[in-house]
Amino acid sequence: MAQDAAKPTDPDLAQGIELGAVADGGMLAGHVGEEEVVLVRQGTEIFAVGAHCTHYHAPLADGIVTGNLIRCPWHHACFDFRTGEAVRAPALSPLDCWSVEERGGKIFVREKKEQPKVRERRPGAAPEKIVIIGGGAAGFAAAEMLRREQYGGSIVMLSNDGAAPVDRPNLSKDYLVGTAPEDWVPLRPESFYADHGIDLRLKTHVAGVDPRAREVALADGSKIGFDRLLLATGAEPVKLPIPGADAAHVYTLRTLADCRAIIARAKEARRVVVIGASFIGLEVAAALRNRDIEVHVVAPEARPMERILGPQMGDFIRSLHEEHGVIFHLGETAAAIESDKVRLKTGSLLQADMVVVGVGVRPRLELAESAGLALDRGVTVNSYLETSAPGIFAAGDIARWPDPHSGENIRVEHWVVAERQGQKAARNMLGCGEKFTDVPFFWSQHYDVPINYVGHAEKWDALDIEGDIAGKDCLIRFKRNGRVLAVASIFRDVENLQAEVAMEEAAVSGPG
Ligand SMILES: Cc1cc2nc3c(=O)[nH]c(=O)nc-3n(C[C@H](O)[C@H](O)[C@H](O)COP(=O)(O)OP(=O)(O)OC[C@H]3O[C@@H](n4cnc5c(N)ncnc54)[C@H](O)[C@@H]3O)c2cc1C
Ligand code: FES
After folding, report:
1. Cis before residue 90, ω within 30 degrees of 0?
2. 3-class state of residue 446 by DSSP
3. pLDDT at residue 2 above 50?
4. Which atom from ligand 1 is nearest to the alpha carbon of 234?
5. Backbone phi, then psi, for 396, in 5-degree steps?
6. Could you say which ligand is closest to the alpha carbon of residue 140?
């Protein structure tokens, strides 16, 4: 990741700087006392906000400014620099704002402002009862946005997980490596839910949804009525249909409990077999190598990630993991898992005192299916994220929506998309009537190498590579019929953001 923007040599903004020191549409990092601040200029106006993203603390001055937004270089959160509001996930908390004074052609940053209430309650009748099924990325972002929108009605959030919403991407990265303490993992402290009037019910399994009666049925037989419902049930790891797949030393990774179990076992394990070279499988491999465990990866493909990132990036990812000691068994599949080994189809045996299966996920569609909602390899939603049943919305890993950028109905499994869909569905449950048009984005982290991917390209006919993949400084464009569908990059954050902006603009101006 890039270095922090504000350095000791950065200007003291309380002492004043020349107006011309900040270019129009540009940013300048500095400090006020102990606090790091970034200035943004829009025409003759200057704004001062916190210098670091409230998601993972990226230096915002390394991002870009478009319109009223600062776009974070690492995972594309957007902040309105006029109010500090985190208007697009993955950041959810606002930036601090300072007042700015202009005197004699110089800019002085003065006191920190009180956080403004950025949104007024919407006029008109709001639904009285909103129920959210799912305590993950989409469900949490929806509940948070409902309260941000000053929604005053009841919010019930039902999750069959034992943990309150967590930062799931961290479960295969710093937390699994052991470098992030567990208190980084919850998206919000426990008190947040009571403080915001969110009735979060954990370990609560929803057994059915009745769209006509407007009720959800819980596994214990009780019922909860709703005026609007958000289905955000996410996905679950695919289980391998092979002997031994249910053994106690075989793990999948989706929940905090899964992750804790892997960490506990990893303390004793010496050799791990990871089945599947998926993003999660490889992130787990990297995390376990960081814990000094011998790691073997078994996968049927010739190159890891080739289907999503192309052959060149696939080769790079393979050699990156090999440099860190991972041993690949590609073109191989597991036939059986025994107590201390994995038997491959070719007959080879791999010793393993722990096995992690990362062979993909399957969207949890049972509730939508039994409720009679339209399905198409996911829950079909319209541009407003509403399902075929009026008043019932769906977001996140389960939702297949009309993507205006690819022109296709797509379903993805990306953290940022799930959160943003949750936010959009929340606003639409309140009657905002806004289309979901965000360009899909995901990131993945392997050791010290972040991969950022914006857009969506299931198939492409040309691949443009700029820079040097092996040198960890590259940008790859995935094209079909001459059109850029997606861009993947390593340490080219600004260009990745610019690609996102270009895709947004292309969708607005339409094809051609
Ligand atoms: C380890 C890991 C690392 C990841 N890393 C990245 C990454 O780096 N970048 C990225 O873009 N994406 C990443 N992802 C993917 C990302 O986390 C998902 O796309 C995202 O969590 C989807 O959000 P969601 O709200 O749809 O589902 P989830 O976050 O899975 O939440 C679903 C919720 O629904 C609940 N639920 C399901 N069924 C029921 C029921 N019947 N009754 C009650 N509750 C129910 C579940 O308990 C859960 O609380 C990662 C995923 C994992 C597992
Ligand atoms: S650090 Fe800014 S979006 Fe993640």
Report:
1. yes
2. strand
3. no
4. 27
5. 90, -150
6. 1
